[in-house]
Amino acid sequence: MPRVDIDFSGTNVFVAGGTSGINLGIAEGFAAAGARVAVMSRSREKIDAAVARLRALGAEATGAAADVRDPEATSAALHSAHAAFGDIDVLVSGAAGNFPAAAMDMSPNGFRSVVDIDLLGTYHVLRSAYPLLRRPGALVINVSAPQAFLPMAMQSHVCAAKAGVDMLTRVLALEWGAGGVRVNSVVPGAIEGTEGMDRLAPTQEARDIFTDAVPIGRWGTPGDLAGACLFLASPLADYITGVVLPVDGGMALGGASSAMAEIAASHSRTIGSGRGK
Question: Residue 43: which of 58, 59, 24 has the closest Cα?
C-alpha cells in the first residue's frame, strides 16, 4: 500500500479559472501542500490577487489572462506556465458559467454561452494542455456539477453542458490512459463563497432550501474540494481514472433536484404575483 503523502513539493499544477471560488480554493490547497501553481482567468486584476494569495502560502505562483472560449489564448496561457515551471503534473479545468432561467425564458445566446464556457472551454483547456502534461503520471481534474446527472428546473443549459463535461472526462480517461494520464471529475454541491451559489440561492430562504437538501446538514467549502483533489493527486489514487466524484455532503442523492424544483416554484410564484399587479 502506498504511503500517504500530502507533500506536493516539485509538483506543477495549472488551474483554469483558478482566481476565485472553488478553483482558487483548489489552487490554495495545492500551494499549501508545496506545489508550484499557475492560474488562468479572464481578469488580470483577479489573477494578480490570486497569485499574491498563493505566494503568501509560500508557493511559487504565476498567472496568465485568457478566456477558455478562445483556444489560441488558452494555449498561450498554458505554454506560459509550462515555460515557467516545466511539464504539468496536475491540470484542473474549472471555468464555468451559470444563471437560473427556464428553458423557454432563455435566449439561444444565453444557452450557447454556458455551453461555450463549460463544455467547449473544458475541451479547449484539455486539448491545449495534453502536449504539455507529464507523461506518464499526469492527472486531469475537471470541475463538474450535479446538473451533469441530475435534471434540475431552470438549469437546462448547465445540465447539457456539464453532462458533456462528464462524458468528455470518461472518453479522455479511455484515450489518454495508455499514455499514463488519469482523467477524473469532481462534483461540488452547495459550496460557500461561490458566484454560482450566490446566483442560485440569493436569499436566505433559498439558502435554507439547499441546506435542507444536504444529508450532512451544511454547505461545503472550497477546502472540501481541495481535499478531494489532493487525494486524487496522491499516490493513494494512482489507480483511479474516469471517475465522477461527488463532493457534496450527499446532496447528489436527490436533494439537489428537489431543491431546484422548490426554488423554481418560488420563482414562478413571484413572477405570477408581479404580473397580477
Answer: 24
Write down the pTM of the prediction: 0.89
Q: Find the angle CA(118)-CA(219)-CA(209) to the nearest 5 degrees.
A: 90
Q: Residue 66, by phi and psi: left (phi above 0), alpha (psi -120 to 50) or beta?
A: beta
Residues 6+ apart with CB under 8 A from 70: 124
Residue type at 2? P
With a cut of 70, which residues of the chain have pLDDT below it? Answer: 1-5, 254-258, 260, 263-277
The C-alpha cell 475541451 sits at 123
Find where cell 414562478 sits.
268
Distances (CA, A) of 50 to 137, 148, 229: 27, 28, 19
End-to-end Cα, the chain, rounded Å: 67
- Give helix 71-85 / helix 121-129 axis angle, nearest 10°: 40
Q: C-alpha angle 260/262/263, rounded to 5°?
A: 65
In contact, 62 and 12? CB cutoff 8 Å: no
Q: Which three cell numbers stand for residue 105?
A: 425564458
CA-to-CA distance for 254 and 248, rounded, in angstroms?
11
pLDDT of residue 3: 59
Task: Provide the pairing of β-strand 90-93 with 61-65.
Answer: unpaired
Distance between CA 20 and CA 122 in Å, rounded?
17
Report the pLDDT value the prediction gives residue 271, as an integer from 0 to 100.
43
User: What one-letter code names the amino acid at 246?
Assistant: P
Beta-carbon count within 10 A of 135 CB: 14
Give every CB contact of residue 208 below 8 A, 6+ residues apart in sequence: none
Burial group, residue 78, by CB count within 10 angstroms (0-12, 13-18, 19+): buried
